[in-house]
């Protein structure tokens, strides 16, 4: 099946796909008697505050520099692997692939394959997928697609402050339709959320001050606790959550106050961005770290961004998703399927290039690979 046929098939498919728990367990659904589709959920777990060393991780933003700063080169390899247990046909798979952002420059992209076709699909401006399609697999055979990318990643300090942005914000319909609505796991339609926004904004006049109040509330009131993602409603009720709950609570507070906001997903971690227009009418996405790093308006570490946004439409489902999950499908004998990745900083051959090496295991979780003394300062 070629790419055009595959995308047409996806558009006509009625196959169901259901996510499992945060470590990749899943449930299977069969359609037409044989086809099996599996979606593996994507964990974002870091909640532990991290103290910067001032070099690799800023303690404070620089006082005399603005923009996207201190570029570092990284290499990423993303791999989808099928290993056959018997005869199977119509193998298809997809996994999230990074795309370009102002703080993330893609230097080169290469895809290699074994027994399949593979290509990149741009889902929208904030997410992409590596797609695999293979006609068949036999017992003991391996089908592999690997994405190899090189990046320049930047820290960000734009010098934003409250005076940068007018109190009256004329948000475009396009931004409002995407970033002021409910999304999966971020429901805006419950009374406790609206009551909280009313209380917090009673003491804040500008959009910037309101966002600061929401940020401080999330830090002070959502107890850090690892676990599967619940929802904004559950986080507000139980006052616990990991980085994803804390970020989505901030996002829900912003959206309820008519401030556009979105989720930012990096390996094993999540934060948020909110959107404001400056005096010239130019829009800016402003980072807010509600777990691990307590940064408001700037980003002091080099992080590979996997996705921005939390209402992403993927070809495998008619419903939008919060995070782009690993997914595969086949007919026949169930193959073993793994989605792995490895992120490595590049540098001089005579010395380590600094902290930041990470590996996505077959269980779907990103882990820090300790190769540099400053890795102890990185999130895990």
What does this structure look like?
This protein is of the alpha+beta class and about 375 residues long. It is about 15% helix and about 35% strand. Helix 3 crosses helix 6, helix 4 packs antiparallel against helix 6 and helix 5 packs across helix 6. The N terminus is likely disordered.
Kindly list the characteristics that best describe this protein:
17% helix, 380 residues, 6-stranded antiparallel sheet, 6 helices, 2 domains, C8orf32 fold, 7-stranded antiparallel sheet
Layout of helices and strands, plus pairs?
Elements (H helix, E strand, L loop, with lengths): L2 H10 L16 E3 L3 E6 L26 E17 L4 E10 L6 E11 L2 E8 L2 E11 L4 E16 L15 H7 L11 H11 L5 H15 L1 E2 L7 H7 L1 E2 L1 H14 L4 E6 L2 E9 L5 E6 L9 E2 L7 E2 L17 E7 L3 E10 L12 E3 L5 E3 L12
Parallel strand pairs: 9-10
Antiparallel strand pairs: 1-2, 2-16, 3-8, 3-17, 4-7, 4-16, 5-8, 6-7, 8-14, 11-12, 11-15, 12-13, 17-18, 18-19
Helix pairs in contact: 3-6, 4-6, 5-6
| Count of β-strands | 19
> Roughly how much helix do the residues carry, as a percent range?
10-25%
Gross geometry: globular
Our count of domains comes out at 2
Which residue ranges are poorly predicted, with pLDDT under 50 across at least 5 consecutive positions? 1-33
Q: What percentage of amino acids are in beta strands?
A: 35-45%
Rounded average pLDDT = 90
Radius of gyration: 21 Å
What is the helix tally? 6
Could you give the order of the helices and strands?
Answer: HEEEEEEEEHHHEHEHEEEEEEEEE
Biggest sheet architecture: 7 strands, antiparallel
Query: Helix/strand/pairing class, anyone?
Result: alpha+beta
Distance between the termini: 40 Å
């Amino acid at each position: 099946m070629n790419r055009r046929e595959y995308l047409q098939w996806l558009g006509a498919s009625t196959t169901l796909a259901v996510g499992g728990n945060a470590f990749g367990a899943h449930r299977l659904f069969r359609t037409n008697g044989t086809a099996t589709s599996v979606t593996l959920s994507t964990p974002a777990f870091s909640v532990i505050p991290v103290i910067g060393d001032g070099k690799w991780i800023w303690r404070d933003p620089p006082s005399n520099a603005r923009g996207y700063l201190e570029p570092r080169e990284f290499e990423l390899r993303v791999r989808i692997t099928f290993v056959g247990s018997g005869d199977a046909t119509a193998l298809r798979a997809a996994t999230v692939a990074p795309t370009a952002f102002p703080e993330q420059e893609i230097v080169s992209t290469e895809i290699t394959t074994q027994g399949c076709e593979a290509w990149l699909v741009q889902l929208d401006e904030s997410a992409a997928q590596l797609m695999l399609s293979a006609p068949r697999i036999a017992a003991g055979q391996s089908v592999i697609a690997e994405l190899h990318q090189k990046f320049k990643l930047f820290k960000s300090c734009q010098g934003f402050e409250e005076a940068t942005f007018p109190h009256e914000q004329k948000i475009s319909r396009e931004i409002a339709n995407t970033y002021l609505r409910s999304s999966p796991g971020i429901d805006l339609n419950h009374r406790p959320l609206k009551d909280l926004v009313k209380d917090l904004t009673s003491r804040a006049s500008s959009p910037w001050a309101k966002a600061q109040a929401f940020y401080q509330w999330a830090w002070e009131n959502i107890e850090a606790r690892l676990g599967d993602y619940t929802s904004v409603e559950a986080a507000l009720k139980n006052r616990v959550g990991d980085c994803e709950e804390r970020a989505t609570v901030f996002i829900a507070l912003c959206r309820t106050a008519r401030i556009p906001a979105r989720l930012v997903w990096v390996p094993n971690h999540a934060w948020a961005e909110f959107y404001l227009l400056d005096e010239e009418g130019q829009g800016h996405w402003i980072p807010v770290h509600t777990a691990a790093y307590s940064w408001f308006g700037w980003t002091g570490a080099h992080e590979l961004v996997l996705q921005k946004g939390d209402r992403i439409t993927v070809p495998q489902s008619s419903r939008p998703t919060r995070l782009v999950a690993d997914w595969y499908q086949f007919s026949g004998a169930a193959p073993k399927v793994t989605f792995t990745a490895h992120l490595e900083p590049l540098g001089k051959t005579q010395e380590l290039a600094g902290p930041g090496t990470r590996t996505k295991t077959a269980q779907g979780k990103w882990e820090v690979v300790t190769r540099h003394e400053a890795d102890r300062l990185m999130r895990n």
